[in-house]
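Newbie here. two chains, one complex. Structure please?
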Amino acid sequence: MVKLEFEHRQAGHCESGVTRNLLNYHHFSISEPMAFGIGAGLFFSYLPFLKMQHAPTTSFRVWPGQVFDRATKELGVKTAIHTFRNPKDSMDKLNEVLEQGYPVGLQVGTFHLPFFPPEYRMHYNMHNMIVYGHDNGNYFISDTLMENLVEINYEDLMRVRYAKGAFAPQGRMYYPTHVPTGIDIKPAIIKGIRKTANNMVGIPFPLVGAKGIRYLAGRMRKWEKKLGPAKASYYLGQVLRMEEEVGTAGAGFRFIYGAFLEEASTVLNRPWLKELSIEMGENANKWREFSYLGSRNCKKRGKPDQSYDFLADILLEVADREEKIFKKLATIK
Amino acid sequence: MEENPNPVYKDKAYGQYRELSYSYGDAGQFEKTVGFHGEADRVILQQAWDLFKERIEDARQRVLSGKVSPVVFYMEKNLLDPLNLSMMAGISVWRVKWHFKPGVFKRLSEKTLKKYADAFNITIEQLKKIE
């Protein structure tokens, strides 16, 4: 029986929430947007050749696991990360680490997660949560998506840790082992901003970053003609689900990133970051408008409410705004 | 810290729980709010689940009329596609699609059937016929 004194806080995005809560346990408190920004979590990619739930994949974030890895690395926090081949080994190791007094972050699949809201139980293997104790085969979980603390039994936990399919977690567990005192977060913020700016405007590939948004806009214009109204609205719905659904804190992480820029401007004492945070907020509101208007198309399966050309124009505007913002951010020193 | 046992979702309707989201107000401030789903979120979630239900029902009809093998039904029931199923069962995509034919499915070995049954978390007897 172990039950650590763990402060649960709800968060908008699972992984940065987990990072924040784990660091907070080791007496280093940063806000959730800060963890997200330093971990360079913001991204955009549109992958038409990779189908997910019968529609092309759109992603508003980086590869799973990167936010925690990058944030702890930039802050100089020592971490331990394990994956296992044998499920039994992974559970033994989990118990061992808990008994040493460390809460542990886990990557899990959501399809079999019993406490998860049923509407989100699709095959999604990139969810993160924290275990902070166990008692007689019952594990105490702090899931940043949920308002309250939850519990899970041994068999269920083993199953979700060994969910199969794309991005299989393979029992991935991670936790900070040593958090130094007196961390200077200023260089970490600058590095995080530069990494994100490079991801968004620096990669010469048409499907990612601001270019990716334009590419999506171009594809969107052809959907209705090519796929028919029902399928076109489903494809649009898929983009919106990735943008607004669980764990994005709204508008595909754009709000949370704006909050990060606002906080960064006060920490670094640079007013021009504050201006960019305002632009980011307006940009995020534009994304919100896009999803609001787009969701009307999803409601009716026949004639769309808004033409796809109109929605594509919003996307082009958003792409221009983001390109401008991140080109400015790339110059940070 | 608040103690709470696992929440129960009695109603199938969406948006039973509150999630945290950020927003940007007119005052030029980023805000955190905890609240239920908005109408727009519900519509897009409902759309995905409608499609899943439709596909399951369609697969059931095709299996009952003998056009495809029960693998298709269980694949749709578990919200999978051939690629994901191949990763879960450890069988290549080509062979998974080949096993969609009822005649081919009848001749499958116990070993292969076991792989599918494990992936769907059911017994081999259940796999051979559908509910």
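Moderator note: Chain A touches chain B through 57 residues (CB under 8 Å). Chain A has two domains: 2-30+78-178, 189-329. Thread marked as resolved.
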